[in-house]
Amino acid sequence: MRGSTPFLWGASSSPHQTEGNNVNSDWWVIEGRTPGLERSGDALDSYHRFEEDMRPLADAGLNAYRFGIEWARVEPVPGHFSRAELAHYRRMIDTALSLGLTPVITLHHFSNPRWFAEEGGWLGEKAVQRFTRYAEAVTDILGDVPWIATINEPNMLAMMITIERQGPAGPSGGSQGLAAADNTRPKLPAPDPEIGAALVEAHHAAREVVRANTDAGVGWTVANRAFAARPGGEDKLREIEYDWENLYLEASRGDGFVGVQSYSSEWVGPDGIEPHPPHPDNTMAGKAYRPDALGVAVRHTWDVTGGVPILVTENGIATADDDRRIAYTQEALDHLFAAIDDGIDVRGYLHWSALDNYRWGDWKATLGLIAVDRETFERHPKPSLAWLGATARRGRP
Fold first, then answer.
1. What is the pLDDT of residue 188?
2. Which residue of 17, 94, 183, 392 could cross-link 9, Cys pair, CB 3.0 to 4.6 Å?
3. Distance separating alpha carbons of residues 203 and 218, to the nearest angstrom
4. Is 229 helix (H, G, I), strand (E, B) or coil?
5. Residue 318, C-beta contacts closer than 8 angstroms, at least 6 positions apart
6. CA 74 to centroid of chain Cα atoms
7. Active site positions, annotated
8. Contacts of 163 (CB under 8 A, 6+ apart)
9. Pairing state of beta strands 370-372 and 379-381?
10. Where are the extended beta strands (E) located within the chain?
11. Which long-range contacts (CB under 8 A, 24 or more apart) does 115-119 make?
């Protein structure tokens, strides 16, 4: 609880984007069959080099690291759980703890076992049963982990599933990676609420397993788009906010925390979300430079959930200019701490991302506090990491 545990200052990652050679996952299949997508390949070899990922964070003065467990590795075929892989992820937890980093664990970060996808994925009749069984197996190694997120960005996951159901005739030509969510891309469909309801059911089932088997605070993380209405767009805003965010935030009521994931803000007019036009200040991902979005997202989340404690699990900027990363993060933190000063219960700030990682379809945009040579896998901490560590030691921006 805030006041009894230290405020978390850290950075985040995900398995598929960093580990490398996640060959049993559906994303490995998607990368190979979809024109225009770059492959994750060896990624950052974090499967073998996780200590090299964590140590710079600790050395800089951070006290938390968010990482995920890869379901496709842990359960390579239905019902078979790899003791070796569970031991691997337990070693990651022990390494984080030994370095003074509080582990924040994500059970599902977009990628699925390929067998799960082949039997219908999240819309399959066994989906909740499959995910619950996985959660039961994984919680055997999570007894002392204080923060566990069941599903990362279920609203974005629901959007991707919506696109897949539309097939090649859909607005983005089928699955094109999360890079397709950039504001400059063709208009994307809102997540189908029926898909959202299936993910809510899975989250609530897994939440009960985590609560039964650990003492962790359990929740999930929601992509917050910090929508704002143009004059005349107020009714459309309410409709869009429900489909994109509020359905998932309302499902967080009763959770131990909710993860806020914010990068930019978007305008909503009478006709819907307005694509952001090209502009010199745009990020490498084509998004508006809006560090104030974090404050908007935190306040919106607090209002909709009715006061569920908040953990900022992702916030950052796609840029090759590290000075700009520092400036963006400084302003984002100013808005975050203004919300805290107004009484909103925020338990920590985890920057996205720890490393320059694979971005669900491409390697172009860099968001990391640590650069990685993808030939040698040597890690090169950026000035922004030292800056964030100094901020963490002060305790506020």
1. 83
2. 392
3. 10
4. strand
5. 283, 284, 285, 287, 365, 366, 367
6. 20
7. 153
8. 170, 171, 172, 174, 175, 176, 180, 188, 189
9. antiparallel
10. 8-12, 64-68, 102-108, 147-152, 217-224, 227-229, 258-262, 266-269, 272-273, 310-315, 346-352, 370-372, 379-381
11. 115/77, 115/78, 116/26, 116/71, 116/78, 117/26, 117/29
* pLDDT at res. 178: 60
Beta strands 102-108 and 310-315 are: unpaired
Bridge partners for 104 per DSSP: 66, 147
pLDDT in tens, 69-104: 999 999 999 999 999 999 999 999 999 999 999 999
Residue that the structure tokens 């924040």 belong to: 104
Our CA dihedral for 328, 329, 331, 335, rounded to 10 degrees, sits at 130
Q: Token pair of 179, please?
A: 């890079």
Place of tokens 């993910």: 199
| Type of residue numbered 297 | A
Cα gap 186→181, rounded to integer Å: 9
The terminus-to-terminus CA distance of the chain in angstroms comes to 21
Q: Which helix (H) or strand (E) holds 129?
A: helix 127-138
Considering the entire predicted model, what is its pTM?
0.96
* pLDDT exceeds cutoff 60 at 168: no
> Higher-confidence residue: 273 or 166?
273
Given the DSSP bridges, would you call strands 217-224 and 272-273 parallel, antiparallel or unpaired?
unpaired
Alpha carbons 156 and 194: distance in angstroms, whole number? 14
Both tokens of 193, joined, read 């609420």
| Beta strand 272-273 pairing with 147-152 | unpaired
**Share of the chain residues as helix, strand and coil, in percent rounded to the nearest 5:** 45, 20, 40
C-alpha to C-alpha distance for 380 and 62, rounded to whole angstroms = 16
Instruction: Name the range with the highest mean pLDDT among 1-10, 14-23, 27-36, 176-185.
Output: 14-23
In one-letter notation, the amino acid at residue 1 is M
* Crossing angle of helices 322-341 and 383-394, rounded to 10°: 20
Write down the mean pLDDT value for the chain.
94
